[in-house]
Amino acid sequence: MFDAVLMPIIFILLFVYVFGGAIAGKGNNDVYVNYVTPGLMAMMGMNIAMGVGTGINDDFKKGVMDRFRTMPIARSSVLIAKIVVEVGRMLIATAILLGMGFLLGLTIHTSVLHLLAAIGLSMVFGAALMWIFILLGLTMKTAQAVQGVAMLVLMPLQFGSSIFAPPTTMPGWLQTFTDYNPLSNLADAARHLINGGPVAHSVWMTLGWSVAITVVMAPLAVAKFRKKT
């Protein structure tokens, strides 16, 4: 739980006080808090999902998964249980992130129900991402390899998105990448649910990505789990 507790605190303080003045203007950190906090909700899910891959890789090396596979239970239940636990950690991290956001000036311009919808959308997308990292953890030989490959994927997706800055400030080719980046869709959906604005497109895009990732990656991960030695 150490990373789930400290990571949101460090991230929101770092980005608000390093980037807030440059993007929103000096003395307007509270404006940037309302922009970046919903984006960081998307980032939390991706970072915690990465930990699922390294964790499952380590569990195989310690023999934990071999023990589970000797028991009369569905193979998918082990992986689903892993996801349920990590979603719980994600909820705690998101709660801490929002608590820090409120301390720094975050304001809900819609309603509590809209805020809960933003949290739920982040959980759904984060759970879908975990299937990718579970498959990666089952495929790579070491936890360090999983972490290294994951970072190569995470960095472009996180910083080539609307999480930290409006895409209008980016060059055209990067704006195109940002438009199709699922993290941008999730960040925009959470941002509009909290601050107000059109949400239908970004919400449906996020749900579409979540379903597509789960439908493709979950069967592959379960099949790999069955065969892994």
**Fraction in helix:** over 70%
- How many structural domains are formed by the residues? 1
**Helix segment count?**
9
What series of H and E elements makes up the topology? HHHHHHHHH
Write down how many β-strands occur, each being a DSSP E stretch of 2 or more residues: 0
User: N- to C-terminal separation?
Assistant: 29 Å
Unreliable stretches: none
**What oligomeric arrangement do these chains adopt?**
single chain
- Give Rg in angstroms: 18 Å
Class per helix and strand makeup? mainly alpha
Query: Hey, roughly how much beta strand do the residues contain?
Result: under 5%
Roughly what is the average pLDDT, rounded to an integer? Answer: 85
Shape: elongated
Major β-sheet annotation = none
What's the helix and strand layout?
Layout: H1 2-24, H2 29-62, H3 64-69, H4 75-104, H5 112-139, H6 143-159, H7 172-180, H8 182-195, H9 200-227
Helix pairs in contact: 1-2, 1-4, 2-4, 2-5, 2-6, 2-8, 4-5, 5-8, 5-9, 8-9
